[in-house]
Structures are given as C-alpha cells and as structure tokens.
Amino acid sequence: MDIFLSIVALLLALTGIVGCFIPVVPGPIVSYAGLLCAYFCSYSKISTAALCIWLVATIAVTAADYFLPAYMTRLFGGSRAGALGATIGAIVGLFVYPPLTIILGPFVGALIGELIHDHRQIGKALYVGLGSFLSFLIGTGVKLILSTCILLRICIDLVPVVSDWIGSLCG
After folding, report:
1. Could you give the CA distance from residue 125 to residue 97 in angstroms, rounded to a whole number?
2. pLDDT of residue 171
C-alpha cells in the first residue's frame, strides 16, 4: 500500500504544480492531497502539526487567489465593473483559446469592464487591466511556490525509502 500511496502522492503533487497554471485545476489543493497520501504511508515523518500548517497555507493561498484579481483591479483604481470584468475574463479565458486566454482573460475583462464603465478613459482602463494581469502573475507565483514546497516535502519523505529499496535490490 505504501508504494501505491507514494506514487499517488508524487502524481498529485506534480498535477498540483501543473494546476497552478490552469485555473480549472486547484493546484495547491491537489498538491495538498498528495501530501495527505504521503502522510498516510507507514514510513512518513510528516507530523500532524506540519500537516495542519500546510492545510492553513493551502486554504490561505487558494482563498487569496480567488480574491486577488478583484482586489488588484480595485487597487489600480478600477471600478466594480472592472473587477467584475476581470473575473468574467478569467472564466471566459478558460474556454476561448487556452492557454493564451487564461493569461490574457483577466486583463481583457478588466479593460472591457472599465471601458463600459467609462469609455472616455482608455489610459485608465489599460492601467486597471495591467493590475488584473499582475494579480494573475502574483497568484500563479504564490500557488507555484506552495505547490513546489509540498512536492519537495513529499520527496524528502520518500528519499530514505527509495534509497533503502534500491539498496535491497542491489545488495
């Protein structure tokens, strides 16, 4: 069972990293599921306290990723229409022409939302769109850091076991 859980843990952690770039796959949550699989292996050195800390980090990063586009849009002077446009753009971007529109969707959505709000301020609309794009980059970066750290934690747990297994095969 440990071998199965170890393989699933690695696959989930790797899928979680890919999910950091694809909004449909909740990268940190999938990575955390991999950490849970590693935790339930008989050889695991992951403590319950560490597991709880990783859970809090996963929840915080996931929640921040949902609120960041609207927040950054507003931070860059955007209106409610711009924030709503950024959210709609992110959703539409999933279906139109991924992966390009996944990246550009929030920018275009915020731009369109701001232009609908006030079509005379093109410069401001572009600036607000930039804020939305930056939120995508920041959110993706934070998710990637968390998911990569979880993958590294799983690998640290696996190294002694794999080393012993290879030693028993060769020796």
Report:
1. 23
2. 66
